[in-house]
Specification:
Layout: E1 2-10, H1 14-32, E2 35-37, H2 44-51, H3 57-64, E3 68-73, H4 88-99, E4 103-109, E5 129-135, E6 145-148, E7 151-154, H5 160-175, E8 180-185, H6 191-207, E9 212-217, H7 218-227, E10 234-237, H8 239-250, E11 260-264, E12 270-274, H9 291-303, H10 308-323, H11 340-350
Parallel strand pairs: 1-2, 1-3, 3-12, 5-10, 8-9, 8-10
Antiparallel strand pairs: 4-5, 4-11, 6-7, 11-12
Helix pairs in contact: 1-9, 1-11, 2-4, 5-6, 7-8, 9-10, 10-11
Length: about 350
C-alpha cells in the first residue's frame, strides 16, 4: 500500500513522541511491503512562532490531501496567556472543524502489569476495556462567546443531526464490541442534554435494537468511572463532558502517556494523537513516554488505512515490552526507567 501520513509534531514533547511513532511506522512499512510518505507540517505554538498562525493554510492543505494525520501535542507556557488573540489550541480546534472530525475515540484498556500504577484499587481495574466516543465539533467549545461588562457568556447548542451522527458511530462501535452503550448527559438541568437523551433513545430503538442503552448523568458517571470502570463498554457524550471524562479515565491506565486517540469524520483523513499534552517541563530530555503515540499510530493503520494485521503487530509489540518490565519514568513507580529513545528501540525490537 502507498499512503501519505501528514505529521504535525507540534510543541513540547510532541516532536519526540511523533519521531518514535514514525520509526515504528517505517519498520512496519518495511516489513509488510508498504510505502508511507510522511511529510511534516506546522501546528500550534511552533506555527505561531514561524508564521503567526496556529494552523497555516499550507498545514491544513497537507492534512486534507493525506490519508491520515499523526499529531504530537500543542501548547506551552510561552503561549499560555488566555487573553492572547492567537493561541496554539486554536489550531487544533480549527483542524477538527475544517476536516469535519466530529468523533473522538479514546480507548481505555489496561495492561495487567500496570494495574498497580493507578490510584484505584486493583480489583476494580481487572477487565477494564472501555471506549469513550466524544462529540468533537459542537457544544460549548464552538458556541458564541462574548463578554459584556462584568458578564461573560459561552453558548452551547446541538442539533438533532449532530447528535444522530455521533450516536450512530458509537452504536456501530458498540455493536462490534459488547453491544452496550452508555449515553452521558446532564438532562436534569440542561436543554441540550435533554435533546441528547431523546435523540439517543430514538436512534437506538429504531436502528440498533440489539445494543443495550443506558443513560447516566455526568456527575454520577464521573463517580462510576472510578468505582466500577469494568462495568462499561462504549460511552458516548458531548464535547465538554467528553473532554473531562476522558482525562479522568486516563487515570485508570496509570499515566496519560499510555493512551491513544483518534478523531474521525464521515470521510477524509482522521487525526491520531496521544491524549497527553505537550509536557514542556520534560521536553528535550528523553523522558517522554512514546507509547500513547505509538498506539495512536496503530489506530491510524487500522481505522484510516485498513491495515489490521499491522496495527495488531504494533499493539502486540507494546504488550511484549511491558511484559518484559521495561518502563519510562511515568510508569516506573520509582524503579528503573528508560527514556523515549530506549522505549522506542524496545518496541522496534519486539516488532
Amino acid at each position: 500500500m502507498q499512503a501519505t501520513i501528514t505529521l504535525l509534531p507540534g510543541d513540547g514533547i510532541g516532536p519526540e513522541v511523533v519521531a518514535a511513532a514514525v520509526a515504528v511506522l517505517r519498520a512496519v512499512a518495511a516489513r509488510h511491503g508498504h510505502a508511507f510518505e510522511m511529510p511534516e507540517a506546522l501546528i500550534g505554538g511552533a506555527a505561531i512562532d514561524a508564521v503567526g498562525d496556529p494552523l497555516p493554510a499550507a498545514s491544513l492543505e497537507a492534512c486534507r490531501t493525506a490519508q491520515a494525520v499523526l499529531l504530537g501535542a500543542v501548547g506551552g507556557p510561552k503561549w499560555s496567556d488566555p487573553a492572547a488573540r492567537v493561541r496554539p489550541e486554536q489550531g487544533l480546534l480549527k483542524l477538527r472543524k475544517e476536516l469535519g472530525l466530529y468523533a473522538n475515540l479514546r480507548p481505555v484498556s489496561l495492561h495487567p502489569a500496570l494495574l498497580d500504577l493507578a490510584p484505584v484499587k486493583t480489583d476494580r481495574l481487572r477487565g477494564v476495556d472501555l471506549l469513550v466516543v466524544r462529540e468533537l465539533t459542537g457544544g460549548i467549545y464552538f458556541g458564541e462567546k462574548r463578554r459584556e461588562g462584568d458578564v461573560a457568556f459561552d453558548g452551547c447548542s446541538y442539533s438533532v443531526a449532530e447528535v444522530e451522527r455521533i450516536v450512530r458511530m458509537a452504536a456501530r462501535l458498540a455493536r462490534s464490541r459488547q453491544r452496550r452503550l452508555t449515553q452521558v448527559d446532564k438532562a436534569n438541568v440542561l436543554e441540550t442534554s435533554r435533546l441528547w437523551r431523546q435523540v439517543t433513545t430514538r436512534v437506538l430503538a429504531e436502528e440498533f435494537p440489539d445494543v443495550a442503552l443506558e443513560h447516566q448523568l455526568v456527575d454520577s458517571m464521573a463517580m462510576h468511572l472510578i468505582a466500577k470502570p469494568a462495568a462499561y463498554d462504549v460511552i458516548v457524550t458531548e464535547n465538554l463532558f467528553g473532554d473531562i471524562l476522558t482525562d479522568e479515565a486516563a487515570v485508570l491506565a496509570g499515566s496519560l502517556g499510555m493512551l491513544p486517540s483518534a478523531a474521525l469524520g464521515d470521510s477524509g483523513p482522521g487525526v491520531y494523537e496521544p491524549i497527553h499534552g505537550s509536557a514542556p517541563d520534560i521536553a528535550g530530555q528523553d523522558r517522554a513516554n512514546p507509547i500513547g503515540t505509538i498506539l495512536s499510530a496503530a489506530m491510524l493503520l487500522r481505522l484510516s488505512l485498513g491495515l489490521e494485521r499491522e496495527a495488531q503487530a504494533i499493539e502486540n509489540a507494546v504488550h511484549r515490552v511491558l511484559e518484559q518490565g521495561l518502563r519510562t519514568a511515568d510508569i516506573a513507580a520509582g524503579g528503573p526507567a528508560i527514556g523515549t529513545r530506549g522505549m522506542t528501540e524496545a518496541v522496534l525490537a519486539a516488532l
